[in-house]
Amino acid sequence: MTDVRDGGRLVAAVDIARAALVDEGQQPGKHRRSVAEGEWAAAHYFDAELAGYRGWQWCVVLAGSPGSDEITLSEVVLLPGDDSLLAPPWVPWVERVAAGDLAPGDLLAAEPDDPRLVPNQIDTEDEFRFHSESADPDDIGQVAGELGLGRRRLLSYEGRADAAQRWYDGDFGPSSEMAQAAPFSCCTCGFYVPLAGALRAGFGACTNEYAADGRVVSAEYGCGAHSDVAAPKGEGSPAYDAYDDGALEVITITRDAEPANS
């Protein structure tokens, strides 16, 4: 038998490397170079004709063994070239999302251990607790503020109704584009803080910095950053499947070795 190492037959076996790619369902482009990888292996590089992979190359590794004239396919992998279009360094979405990024129809799930949210049975001390038998002066002052004591004038029924209608019909009401695309309403969200007084049942303030932060919102308003939104599953783009360029599939084939035509 002929020693595969003799005459650089692995380096010259361009046709075998190209055929291996075709067998894998790929359409390789121009053959760029062949590189000996030790005594019994050679790597062949072809232009990758894949949309979105500008400058990438297919690497086909062929192998042989002493005393045999057979050439074996060792592996096929997609590799970036010197001028390849590469994705920027991956950054977790929680570090990329900023206030104002949320658009109608977007879903923004809070992390399970988000420090801004706690189970509803935990007392966060944001509700007024008043016990007549042990009244604290600060608590009494809070009650006075709730009732409007100490203010010369208070909002009338008409004033409250006008404000409520304006907020209800506005950008943070149930008829807005954002609310129409939302899966949940604000009244069930952990980031929703109801207003005090007569408007409590219908309106509150949003405390989510990625949503309507600091705005008065209708209890029937909603957005994709609701505290109960589930995190998306899976990888890649919703529109396109990601090509798995990190997986190596080792396939062994046997062919009669034929030197490449020069």
Automatic annotation (TrEMBL):
One Pfam family per UniProt: DUF3027
InterPro entries: DUF3027
Superkingdom classification of source: Bacteria
Protein name: DUF3027 domain-containing protein
